[in-house]
Structures are given as structure tokens and as C-alpha cells.
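Notebook, student rotation project (T.W.).
Task set for the rotation: take a protein with a known small-molecule partner, predict the structure of the complex, and write up what can be learned from the model alone. Partner molecule chosen: magnesium ion. Sequence and SMILES entered below by T.W., checked by me.
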Amino acid sequence: MADLSLHDLVKTYDKTQVLHGIDLHIEDGEFVVFVGPSGCGKSTTLRIIAGLEEATSGEIRIGGRVVNNLEPKERDIAMVFQNYAIYPHMTVRKNIGFGLRSSKLPRADKDARIDEVAAILGMTDLLSRKPSQLSGGQRQRVAIGRAMVRDPAVFLFDEPLSNLDAQLRTQMRLEIKKLHQRVGTTIVFVTHDQVEAMTMADRIVIMKDGRIQQVGTPSEVYHKPANTFVARFIGAPAMNMLPGEAQAGGVAVTGGGTVPVDVALPAGRPILVGVRPEDLTPGAEGAALVEGRLTVREPLGHETLIYVDTGAGELIAKADGRVPPEVGSTVRLTAPPDTLHLFDAETGEALA
Ligand SMILES: Nc1ncnc2c1ncn2[C@@H]1O[C@H](COP(=O)(O)OP(=O)(O)O)[C@@H](O)[C@H]1O
Ligand SMILES: [Mg+2]
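Predicted structure of the complex:
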């Protein structure tokens, strides 16, 4: 077990800089998920931690030890990739044992270690099978077993669930989370899927264009997004962004009402008012934030999402699942003031 820290990590390929100074400390035993759109530098960061790629500058420490100049196998890490290769001609036992190929442990100790890992993964009865006799989820577990068998200080996962179908993905994400709760090893997990990040992580690192946008618990990044990028990346459907302008005592939403604000803002400053669909509901009472015409309904059973054309753009709101308003009707949308998020429209940064 070990903590992991990245200090001012920079990576440049030829002339293109893809990581612009990544600073992060991951606690011993923590489950940290890197999330961000394709190409933002998640895999590059992970590969640098693993030693498969060299940092242009910056420092990587695992368990307090600087590992920049260590070979991957000297770093006490194990990595599971999206395209994990398990060998079709080898049994599950041999495939898991492959993780120990360079180990100098005696044969009997290796076997004992494989048995232990198989037991943790619930695969004891499958050890003599070949991969073709396994389900997709079991094959995935073999790949994880191969990484676990070395008892690394840190596990690195690079989108290991992306090739699985939706149901299996949900199942494996739960299994990996349970596995972490049992073994307690530090995990760095990369995904482009914000639901995976939210459901699995102790802390989420949200990246964009080679820069960290925010680091926080799932609750922090959801309820206190640092900027409009994080606000719209985390949560589905995405947060609505209503354009507005600061005025004395509040923010006037374009084509809508005025939102009271307790911070002093220079009058005329362009503001975005963020409101999550679940906080925006049709209501007869109170001052409407905006109103508009309902264009589309998406019934989900327990609730209905409604699309409303307003002076502040097309907004997504949540209506009752049983008796949602009719398409074509005019709806007044309200949101509790404490659910609103304010952002500087020019920088995208959240206002305190
Ligand atoms: N070997 C390479 N040579 C040049 N550019 C690369 C190389 N590997 C990755 N990149 C670029 O670095 C950026 C980050 O890539 P990557 O870390 O794979 O993103 P992610 O995993 O977040 O999708 C991308 O723009 C990608 O095209
Ligand atoms: Mg990647």
C-alpha cells in the first residue's frame, strides 16, 4: 500500500503540450477517478505513473519514493487496460499466474497467491477453465486477477469497462468498488464516463485539455462545481445555463426573473445562472425564474423530463411522473434559490 503524488507533471509530444502541470496527492488506500473528455490527457497521466511513458518534466512519487527513473516493474504498480489481453490457450490459473512471471517466489507460494486472488474474485471453481469457457465479466475478472496477484501498492485502471455492454459495465463497476473495500489498495481509475466516476470514486479528478479543472468528492463536484465545464460535465441531463446580468441586489435572467444574490457584483457583469434539471420544476406558486412553452416530454416513469423554450434558451426541467404538463402548454419554471449556481460568463469560474 502506498500514497501517490504528482508534482507539476508536464508532457510534450514533439511540439504539442498535452499535460500542463498536473499536481495531485492521492492518499494511501484512496480510490481516485480521473474523468474527462477523450484526448484530455487521462491515459497519458496514467502511463506516466506506470512508467510506460516518460514525463517531460515534473515528479512522480509512490510511497514517498521518487520513481521517475524506475522501470515499470520496479514501481510496485499494476495496470489493467481497456483492451486487456488474456491468453486464450491458457487456463484461468495460468492467466492469473502470468502476473507473477517475473517474480522469484517459489512455485508453491505462487500457487497459494493465485488461489487467494481467485477466492477474492469468486473464481476458485473456474481456475482450470480456458477463457472461451468464461462470460465477459469473468474474463474481465481474470484480467483484474492478473494485476492483483502481484499485490501491488497501487492499481491503475485505464477505461477497463469501456468494451463491456451496459449491464455488465454496471455489474463490474460494483465489483471493483467492493474489491477496493475488501483489499484497500490505492486505485487510480480512468474513465470518460461521469456516472462511473460518481459511483466509484472517493475523489474525482476532472480534466480538460491537459489541465485539472477540479478535484473533490462526488458530492463536492456535483454540488459545488468550480466552473461551467465541471458543472455541465458532471450530472445528466446536464445543468441548464441561463444567461443573465448582474444588477443591484441580484442577477436578472435574460427573458426571466431576478435571482437574489448575496455577493456584491458590478452592475452589468454578464453572469450564467446554472440550475440542474431536477431543481427546476413547473410551479404555480412564487416568482417564476423563467417561463416558456413546453415542446417535448420524456417520461421516465418516476419523473418526466420536459423541454421548455424560454427567453433564456431551451431548458430541461423535471415534472411529475404521473401528471406532467401538456406539450404546447405554457409552464412557469421555479427553482429554490439555494440550488442556483452562479458563474462568471466570461471566465466560466464559479462565483463564491
Ligand atoms: N504517442 C503520442 N504522440 C503524440 N500525441 C499523443 C501521443 N499519445 C497521446 N497523444 C495526444 O495526447 C493527448 C492526450 O491523449 P490521452 O492521454 O490518450 O487522452 P485521453 O486518455 O484523456 O483520451 C491527445 O491529444 C493525444 O492525441
Ligand atoms: Mg485514454
